Amino acid sequence: MFAYISRRLAVSLLILLTVSFAVYIIFAFLPFDPAALTCGKNCNDPGIIEANRHRLGYDLPFFTQYFLFLKGLFFGRSFGEGAALINCPAPSLGYSFQQHACVTNLIGEALPVTFSLAIGAIVMWLALGIGLGILAARFRGRIVDQLSTIFVLIGTSLPTFLTGLLLMVFVVIRWHLIPFPSGNYTPFLENPFEWAQILFLPWLTLAFAYAALYTRFVRSSVIDTSNEDYIRTARAKGLSEGVILGKHTLRSALAPIATMAGLDFAGLLGGAILTESVFNLPGLGRLAISSVVKYDLPIIVATTLLAAFIVVVMNLIVDILYAYIDPRVRVA
Amino acid sequence: MARVKKSTSIAIVAVLALAVVAGGLVKMSSGGSSKGGTITYLTHSEAWTHADPNRNYTGQHIAWFGSYMHRTLTAYARAEGSAGSAVVADLATDTGRASNGNKTWEFTLRDGSTFEDGSAVTCEDVKYGVSRTFATDVITDGPTYAIGMLDIPSAKDGSSVYKGPYTTKDNDTAAYDKAVSCSADNKTITFNLKRPVGDFNYTTTYLSFSPVPKALDKGDAYDMAPVSTGPYKIEKYKAKDEMVLVRNDKWSKKSDPIRNAYPDRIVVRFGLAEEVRDQLVLNDSEKNSMSLDAVLPTNLPTVFDDAGKPNSKFATRALNVYDPYVTYSAVNVKKVPCLDIRKAIYYARDFAGLMQLSGGAAFGGDPADGVIKPLMGLDYAKVTGLEEFKPAGNAEAAKKYMDAAKTACPDVYAKATDPKRGIYFDFADTDTNKKAAAIWIDSMKKNAGITMKFNYIEAGSYYAVVLDQTKQGDLSRAGWAPDWANASTVIPELFTETGGFPMSQNWGDPAYKAFKAKSDAALAEPDRKKQGKMWAELNQYAMDQMWVIPGVFSKTQEVWGSGLGGVFFWEPQGAPSYGDIYIK
Amino acid sequence: MTLLKVENLSVDFPTPDGLVAAVHEASFEINAGETLAIVGESGSGKTVTNLALMGLIPARTANISGSAKFESHNGSIDLLSMDRNELRKYRGKDIAMIFQDPMSSLHPFYTIGDQIIEAHQVHNKVDLKVSKARAIELLELVGIQGAATRIKAFPHQFSGGMRQRVMIAMALVNNPSLLIADEPTTALDVTVQAQIIKLLGDLQKEFKMAMILITHDMGVVAGAADRVNVMYAGRIVESANVRDLYSNPLMPYTQGLLASVPRMDRPHTNRLSAIPGQPPSMIALPTGCSFNPRCIRKSEVSGSRCETLMPDLTPRGNGHLARCFIGEGA
């Protein structure tokens, strides 16, 4: 198991390095000038563009820029001089002139928001999706199953943007069931109650969409597993239906859910753009999309890399978890 | 000095335009105003474009920050209607003293004005603030009047020899010290200008003339933590989250008679989804809140009736008023050197169809007859010679001018009517603009037989492209608002070769020489009344030449919660007078 | 002593295309310690018969009728009329079952020890250690070397034959009086097949249990069974003790089955005899004798009785029963 994990770790590091290089290449050869995007309307003066190009290091050769970027990750980086000196300590991902902040700080602020959003949502949708999926499989063809089919249909067809907006407009604005939050986000450690209150509807919005998918998936997975020979064996042993479902069927039926949930979680950590927009959560998705709209290059590079990093790490976690669940994988 | 999208002030009534009105003379719009509570502003933006006073440029931002945090030498009177266009003293004891034929201006600071840490605002602080505007690589986006007006030589490449406080190499600091100087008691600031500027005290209403304490300056990062001189200071400012202003206990009404300080707290909620922002206000869910953004066009019918009047539910909490903008289609005279063709385009256009795209005349505005809005009062006179205008297009008039063009300028006529060549129009690449393009193509073909084609340019780089004189097409969409209540910030900017927004490329036109001479004369004219008449004549002149196809005198809509009182439209800033809003 | 007496067992599956009579009025009995082989092609009803007895056919999917008297540790019970939840207490204890495919019949995520211990625990309120010792004992008995350590291994770490031994150990852990072995060797290599059959025979003697051996392989039957039921299209078509059946098969189908087995004691023929045609569709059974379309001897029967009438299962002396018009009146 140790050898397996260390081998996977080494491969993951290599992937990240490759991704960072690829991202750098892509943005280096995009047809716009990052320096020209740092000075707003003053950019009609070429001298200013050149000054900012120098300040940000965009005048250096490509490989030097990439090296400085990597170096900044470990040793920090500073830009400019004198009273206008900007210092971004390690791990530095650069400085955004448009947001007047070190990119690492921006990500440091956005990541906990997105993480809170993702973690609550995944707990909700796993509980809802797995629960409903099992019920639907167990009572196949009956009223519970039919209701779950309706739920799946609505959940998978309503876009999260609309679900979120409807929840916001009706639950908060029209009916005042939940007060309009006094801030866009409150950290968990600061006030757990407010944290949950602000995030409840966003969780519900995401959980609604994902739970529908998971219900469908769990239902068919449980039904498929119920037809396995080893479930017949379990029944032949004289085990009760409860033990058969809980211990034998679900263990196999839910194993692929772990992979699915891990990757969906990674996807959400990369930023749930629509949900974050509707509920004005200052998360990674919003950071990424606004930087793309504004061509804020340092943030684009950083968020792309972070998304890659999250996917690679989650893949690693999922693989290790799966090896724990399914003994057959450990040997391979 | 280019003004691109949004702008600021607008001059209104002639009588007050140059008059120096002391702060106390202007009647305050008071009434049931009361103190206390929290006013919440809602916006889709993730943060202020800028909070650094020296980088604020748009009227709304100046109105907001000028009301709550940033003081400058002079300000517009906080009054409804035309009275608001009067300049009053702010940090200065009066509205400035000109000498040396309007080339030297002196302002003396009031006693008792302080920063939020209690230290007194000195001449050096104002001087330092102004110096920052020269550092155009760091202090971006702000107005650059100081660079254009102060008596500082230019380097070979045309840029100022003074590069602001952050540059040490090749920086002529002495030249700046000569242009801006402080008295021995550090209370009086003197500006030496390159040329006479009779209304320099309008220029100083810009927050680019606000003081900044050198010790607390952080360059670019000052934008997130500016130091207050006004009645409120920042308690919290986080992009994508909120800004919270609390009372500045070092501020005193005694040294700042023009500002009110009604609420206890002011909160700005950033990053709201547009629909959520509108719904919060429209449903009056947050009674003490106001939207900082335009209402979504789809929500306008909820608030206003077809005529643009607020519905009964919104009678006391919505405004539909003229903003400072005039939109137009600039003609590249170099490429379309034919007055008859330009007139044919004007008459052939389906104006009503285009207006329908922006919600109809009730919300979009009225047909413009030039580049000066009637709100400019003194500088506006109705333009004549456009009597054949018909909202849906006048095919008869268009054909008449096309026939004239056939003989007057056969080359341009051939190009315009050739289905393979045609007239090229620069448009920002947006969905609404594509719909507008269809209306243009259709009406030009039908009413004048002109082939119209479109260059779609990515919206973010639109002005950068069309202001490049080699890249500009035959026509370009544009909009402009005056920087302050004087058409000196309109006519020369738009129609002279040295202006900040010269999209008509009209200096090759035989009519240009006389125009330029008159424009220069108007700039130098000390009598404001005479000057206003000259601007109106120049506006007429430009329309006679059809250097632009006039578009719309545009309108803007404001909506707020039922808990707020005292809201009025502050005409010179083209925004509500935020400082006068209170909680009922 | 009669351990199990099945009377008129019928299993019908309702399907969208009509009722499928998977088993039709099967009656047979088995004595303690005896081996009954049930022989037939796929779909003949042999597996369904036993799943019905074990109560492993989901209640809502089939109509089951008839009776099955079984002498359990708790007295006489009827396997077919008993409440399913009640039946659970006998399943795995009095009646155990092993299946065709040992590859898929063990849960891949649990160690074989866990799975055997679980089978013991469910019917015995004893300490886990006792169950573990019992598991190791059984594993040794079925011939797994180093059972004490192999108990921690997962199914995928065993070969097919070894896995079937594990299945057998698991089935025997509670000393059942009846073992149902459903094609226990079909999925295995030929050499391993013989070992497993021998093991089953040895264990049967040791545990003194009765066994129902379900198979389509007449070769396996000869060495292992006391009595044979031949099934075709859901019906028992011939039933006899193994010696009678081999020496004197009465039903042309049985004759065909026996002829297809290569035998050392018969003169060498160039090719194996096979039964022509395919087993019938269970939804559209032929009228008359279900076997008639494939029967090479139906010309011996006068008229068209084979095509129109279903022959009864009639005694032919010495406990030999057959369902055929041929030799019926003799």
Q: What's the helix and strand layout?
A:
The complex is a heterotrimer of chains A (332), B (584) and C (330).
Chain A: H1 2-28, H2 46-56, H3 62-75, E1 77-79, E2 86-88, E3 95-96, E4 101-102, H4 103-138, H5 143-157, H6 160-174, H7 192-226, H8 229-236, H9 241-253, H10 255-269, H11 273-278, H12 284-293, H13 297-325, H14 327-331
Antiparallel strand pairs in A: 1-2, 3-4
Chain B: H1 14-17, E1 38-42, H2 59-68, E2 74-76, E3 87-89, E4 97-99, E5 104-108, H3 123-132, H4 145-149, H5 173-179, E6 180-182, E7 188-192, H6 200-203, E8 232-237, E9 242-247, E10 265-269, H7 274-282, E11 289-291, H8 300-303, E12 318-331, H9 339-348, H10 351-357, H11 361-364, E13 365-367, H12 395-408, H13 410-417, E14 423-428, H14 431-448, E15 452-457, H15 462-466, E16 475-480, H16 491-495, H17 512-524, H18 528-544, E17 548-559, E18 564-565, E19 569-570, E20 575-576, E21 582-583
Parallel strand pairs in B: 1-10, 1-11, 14-15, 14-16
Antiparallel strand pairs in B: 2-3, 4-5, 5-7, 6-7, 8-9, 9-10, 12-16, 12-17, 13-17, 18-21, 19-20
Helix pairs in contact in B: 9-12, 9-14, 12-13, 17-18
Chain C: E1 2-15, E2 18-31, E3 35-39, H1 46-54, E4 63-72, E5 75-78, H2 84-87, E6 95-98, H3 102-105, H4 112-121, H5 128-141, H6 147-150, H7 160-172, E7 178-182, H8 190-207, E8 210-215, H9 218-224, E9 227-232, E10 235-241, H10 242-247, H11 252-259, H12 305-308, E11 314-315, E12 321-322
Parallel strand pairs in C: 3-8, 3-9, 6-7, 7-8
Antiparallel strand pairs in C: 1-2, 1-4, 4-5, 9-10, 10-12, 11-12
Helix pairs in contact in C: 4-5, 4-7, 5-7, 7-8
Structure overview:
The complex is a heterotrimer of chains A (332), B (584) and C (330). Helix content of chain A is 72%, strand content 3%. Chain A has helices at 2-28, 46-56, 62-75, 103-138, 143-157, 160-174, 192-226, 229-236, 241-253, 255-269, 273-278, 284-293, 297-325, 327-331; strands at residues 77-79, 86-88, 95-96, 101-102. Chain A has a two-stranded antiparallel sheet with strand order 1-2. A two-stranded antiparallel sheet of chain A has the order 3-4. In chain A, strand 1 (77-79) and strand 2 (86-88) form a beta hairpin. Chain A is globular. The mean pLDDT of chain A is 86. In chain B, 26% of the residues lie in helices and 17% in strands. The radius of gyration of chain B is 24 Å and the shape is globular. Chain B starts with 13 loop residues before the first helix and ends with a strand. By secondary structure, chain C is an alpha/beta fold. Chain C has a domain at 105-175. In chain C, 31% of the residues lie in helices and 24% in strands. Chain C contains 12 helices and 12 strands. Chain C has helices spanning 46-54, 84-87, 102-105, 112-121, 128-141, 147-150, 160-172, 190-207, 218-224, 242-247, 252-259, 305-308, and strands spanning 2-15, 18-31, 35-39, 63-72, 75-78, 95-98, 178-182, 210-215, 227-232, 235-241, 314-315, 321-322. In chain C, strands 6-7-8-3-9-10-12-11 form an 8-stranded mixed beta sheet, with helices on both faces. In chain C, helix 4 packs parallel to helix 7 and helix 7 packs parallel to helix 8. The longest helix of chain C has 18 residues, at 190-207. Chain C is globular and about 70 Å long. The relative contact order of chain C is 0.14. Chains A and B meet through helix 2, helix 6 and helix 12 of A and helix 7 of B.
